[in-house]
Design brief:
With about 150 residues, the protein is of the alpha+beta class. Helix content is about 30%, strand content about 30%. It has one domain: Gcn5-related N-acetyltransferase (GNAT) (Aminopeptidase, 3-Layer(aba) Sandwich), CATH 3.40.630.30.
Length: about 150
Amino acid sequence: MSKLSFHLLEPLRFPLINRFYKAYYPAGKAKKDETIWVGESNQGIQCCVRFKYIEDYQLLTGMLVHPEQRGQGIGQHLLQAVQDQLTQQPCYCFAFAYLEAFYQAAGFVTLSDDALPAPLQSRIERYRAGGKSLIPMRYSPNLTDN
């Protein structure tokens, strides 16, 4: 793997991120009102993560690592690169069960549904009604062993 550069996606390059999603995670689709971070090499975008703003909170969503790059720690490097973003506003994510430990290693803690702010409770309920099995988590690095 070549060296990655982590940075905010420039607005002019927005179509590239949706092409990346379409190729490797068709359910993901970036929206222009989101903050999008990418990791790029000389071979193009290798990973990305989006932040949606919901009232006074942000929701980490759509994290994707190129399938050929998985298992190499790129996702953790991306989350380290977005530390300033994670602390700008309270940050939550809805993790698939198999990714719970991954997010815990990055400073997220698992929550009960009733610990979510109201606007996020209704959102996770909608996602679950659509058949997704998700675990609510909040970025709280001071509550982890990291």
